[in-house]
Amino acid sequence: MFEELRRDLVIMRIEDNKLARKLLDVRSELTQVRAQKSCEEHADMLDDVAIELEEEEELTGLIKACDLSDRKPASLLSSFSPLRNIGVSRMNLNRRRFSIR
């Protein structure tokens, strides 16, 4: 009888160790999956930042290309100006408003 109980206890201990090993393997896999997912998310964030920087550089280039600081304001209201086409003319300084054609 004691031999039978001892054998059952040994079998239960072996099964318990197998189960513990499986749980540790699952935990290890779960940790690896979480780390991989985190790496992918960080890679996506870095890609987003790189794209935003490229867009910002493009916008900066466009702003520099459209810089009108060296032109006189009157040249903006010349007869070929799109501002004149919509009816904006030189500012009437006496009345402090724009005059409409």
Question: Which key features would you list for this structure?
Answer:
101 residues, mainly alpha, two-stranded antiparallel sheet, 2 strands, 71% helix, 9% strand, rod-shaped, FAM167
Q: What features would you describe in this structure?
A:
This protein is mainly alpha-helical and 101 residues long. It has helices at 2-65, 73-76, 82-85, and strands at 88-92, 97-100. The chain has two domains: 1-67; 71-101, no CATH class. It is 71% helix and 9% strand. The chain has a two-stranded antiparallel ribbon with strand order 1-2. It is rod-shaped, with a radius of gyration of 38 Å. The chain starts with a helix and ends with a strand. It holds the Pfam family FAM167. Belongs to the FAM167 (SEC) family. InterPro entries: FAM167, FAM167_domain.
